[in-house]
Amino acid sequence: MANTYREFIDQSVDFPQDGFEVRNDCLFFHGIELMELIEQYGTPLKLNYLPSISNQIQKARYHFGQAMVEIGYQGTYTYCYCTKSSHFAFVLDEVLKNNVELETSSAYDIHIIRRLFEQGKITKNTMLVHNGYKRELYAKLIADLINDGFNSVPVLDNQKELKLLSSMVTKPCNIGIRIATGEEPQSEYYTARLGIRHRNIQSFYEKEIADSDIFNLKMLHLFIDNGIEDSLYYWNELSKCLQVYCDLKKVCPTLDSLNIGGGFPTKQSLADEFDYQYLTQEIVRHIKEYCQKEGVPEPNILTEFGSYTVAESGATIYSIIDQKKQNDVEWWNMIDSSFITTLPDTWAINKRFILLAINNWNDPYERVNLGGLTCDNQDYYNVEAHVNNIYLPKYSTTRQQYIGFFNTGAYQNALGGYGGIQHCLIPSPKQILVRKDENGVLKSELFAEEQGHEVMLKILGY
Question: Where are the domains of the chain?
Answer without folding.
Answer: 5-50+315-460, 52-310
